[in-house]
Specification:
242 residues; alpha+beta; seven-stranded mixed beta sheet; three-stranded antiparallel beta sheet
C-alpha cells in the first residue's frame, strides 16, 4: 500500500508594519473649576481608528522637517526638550502645529513676540490658509513666512510617546504634546477628516467613553486619566516634565 506523506506548509510570522512618525497635541484651556481638552471625532470612514474621539494629530511630512530646519521660522526649544527625538529638525513639533491648525483651526504662533491673534479681519485669510494645508497646496512654513509669524514650537511640551501595537496593519510612532489654547482664537473641527469637535473635561471624556457615547482609544483615555483632577493650567509645564 502506498503511503501518502502529509506535508504541512511552513508558516511564517509576518513582519510588523513599520510605524510612521506622527504627532498629536493635547490642547488645554481653563474651564470652570477644571481644565478642558479639545477633542475631535474621526470620520466613520477613516482607515485608522474610525468614529472615535482623539486629540488632533497625524503623520509627519517632509515639509515639516524642512520647516524646522529653516532659520527663523520656529521658536527655539529650551532644555531639556531641545534634545532627544522631538528636538527641532525631526519634524515632530511642526507636524503637531500643522495638524492642530488643520483639524482644530488653532495656530500656535507669535507675531512681534506676542501670541498670534486671529481677529475678525483675519478669519477669511486664515481659513484659506487652513484649506491650503488640508489640500496640500501650501506648507505651514510657507504660511508662516507669508504671515510674518514665528511658529511656537517652544509652546509644545512633550507629554507622551505611543507606538501602535505590532499586530495592527497601520501603525504610528506618535509623540504627544501639551499646549495651552491661545486667547482670541476659536477651536473648530475641520469637517473633512473629523465629524465633530468638543471641549470636554478629562473626567467627562472618560465617563462618556465608558458608556460608549464618545469612544476613546487607549492612548487618548490614558492621557485623559493623567489629566484627571487638574483644576488649573499652570500645572501644565511642571507635569509635562515630570
Amino acid at each position: 500500500m502506498e503511503r501518502i506523506r502529509m506535508v504541512t506548509p511552513e508558516t511564517t510570522t509576518p513582519q510588523p508594519t513599520t510605524p510612521r512618525p506622527a504627532s498629536a497635541t493635547v490642547l488645554v484651556r481653563q474651564g470652570g473649576e477644571r481644565i478642558e481638552v479639545f477633542m475631535v471625532r474621526r470620520h466613520v470612514r477613516s482607515e485608522f481608528v474610525p468614529d472615535v474621539y482623539v486629540f488632533p494629530g497625524g503623520s509627519i511630512h517632509e515639509a515639516d522637517r524642512h520647516t524646522e530646519q529653516t532659520p527663523n521660522l520656529c521658536a527655539p526649544v529650551q532644555p531639556p526638550e531641545s534634545t532627544g527625538p522631538t528636538a527641532l529638525g525631526a519634524g515632530f513639533r511642526v507636524a503637531a502645529l500643522r495638524e492642530l491648525f488643520e483639524e482644530a483651526g488653532v495656530l500656535l504662533a507669535r507675531r512681534g513676540g506676542q501670541p498670534l491673534t486671529i481677529g475678525d479681519a483675519d478669519v477669511v485669510r486664515f481659513a484659506a490658509a487652513r484649506d491650503a494645508l488640508n489640500s496640500k497646496t501650501a506648507t505651514l512654513g510657507e504660511i508662516a513666512q507669508r504671515e510674518g509669524v514665528t511658529l511656537a514650537t517652544d509652546a509644545l511640551l512633550h507629554w507622551a510617546h505611543w507606538i501602535t501595537p505590532a499586530a495592527w496593519p497601520k501603525r504610528f510612532d506618535t509623540h504627544f504634546f501639551l499646549a495651552e489654547m491661545p486667547a482670541n482664537q476659536v477651536a473648530a473641527h475641520d469637517a473633512l477628516e473629523t465629524t465633530a469637535g468638543a471641549w470636554v473635561t478629562p473626567e467627562d471624556a472618560l465617563a462618556r467613553s465608558e458608556t460608549g457615547e464618545s469612544p476613546l482609544v487607549f492612548a487618548t483615555s490614558t492621557s485623559c486619566g493623567r489629566l484627571r483632577g487638574w483644576q488649573t493650567t499652570p500645572r501644565l509645564g511642571r507635569a509635562s516634565r515630570g
